[in-house]
Amino acid sequence: MKKYSFSVMLLAMMLVIAACGEADETGGDAEGDDDQTEETGDDNGDGDEETAADWASDVTVLTGGEQGVYFPLGGAMAQIISDNVDDVAASGVSTGASVVNVNDIQDGMGELALVQNDIAYFAQEGMIMFDENLDGFSGIATLYPEVVQIVALEDSGIETVDDLEGKRVAVGDQGSGTEANASQILESHGITYDDINPEYMAFGDAAGGLQDGNLDAAFITAGTPTGAIESLQANRDIVIVSINQDAIDDLTSEYPYYTEFTVDGDTYGTEDATTVAVQAMLIASNDLPEDQVYEMTRAIFENLDVIEGTHARGADITIESAQDGMSIDLHPGAERYFDEQ
After folding, report:
1. N or C end of the chain, less CB within 10 A?
2. CATH superfamily of the domain spanning 146-278
3. Residue 87 region, left (φ>0) first, then alpha (ψ -120 to 50), else beta?
């Protein structure tokens, strides 16, 4: 009986060992299959994770001064992106505008920015105020005309650009597109900064300086109507100074991104004024992946009513005009969106 029991036990142990070995072998294959599946899953997952990781979850939209048009429009675009692009939160921030925005995008301090088309071109070509070619950004769309408005107090006696000589003139924030326009327009009239008393300041500060009598005139490049000018006009009588036709011809010939523009007298309750305009545009960092820019572009152009409700210039933004005056290459994501329309 004992021998039988021992034999049974020995047989049982052998069966168990064999079963375990088979289980281990099967388990090993299963584990190997799991590893292979997991590895395949990791490959797909990594691809998905890399795509997700490439997306900027926090998007900064660089705008301009709070009294300009960039600020409300950029804020509206940020809200649209936050509301319509999954897992992306965007916010608009006030800046010194075009030149500052281009440099900040290049330095990774923002993902989207509103800039003038001339400044974007200068940056990529390494011209004018840029000492080197900046290639860290691409275009999304042109938006609306940015009008160079020379505002003066009516009692200043300033009626022409030539009258600015010897006067206290705000020429825009340092590093802004406005300052570049001011320099070029003055030069087209044979005037340099040595001939005026230049003050570097943003729209709101310039309007405040005019209202307080600390300035005689100010250059403001923005969509019309511009909040800073409307606020000033509510308290002081102003004029919008015309650029003489010869100077306009010279400007549009030498700088093809300029176009002639008339500020209708109804805009601010002044006389009609003839000036020049460039185009506002939206740019994107080249660090943003194509799919994300595609989704953000789509969100913006499918919700233009939100932008139009924010500022009158929003009505100028259309798919049909989105490439008018585009001075640089499109971001692949934006290009894909427009190709599909």
Report:
1. N
2. Periplasmic binding protein-like II (3.40.190.10)
3. left
CA nearest 137: which of 158, 120, 125, 149? Answer: 120
Could you give the C-alpha distances from 217 to 90, 164, 205, in angstroms and in order? 36, 8, 12
Chain segment 30-70, per-residue pLDDT in tens: 333 444 433 333 444 444 444 556 899 999 999 998 878 89
String of b and e for 141-174 (b: at least 16 CB within 10 Å)? bbbbbbbbbbbbbeebebeebeebbebbbbbbbe
Q: Which helix (H) or strand (E) holds 50?
A: helix 2-54
Task: Decide which of 3.90.1150.10, 3.40.50.300, 3.40.190.10, 3.40.50.1000 is the CATH code for 56-144+280-340.
Answer: 3.40.190.10
Domain ranges for the chain, please list them.
56-144+280-340, 146-278
**And the tokens for 253?**
């010939």
Q: Which two tokens stand for residue 118?
A: 């001339």
Q: Are 270 and 225 in contact (CB under 8 A)?
A: no
If we measure between CA atoms, which residue out of 119, 141, 110, 105 comes closest to residue 307? Answer: 141
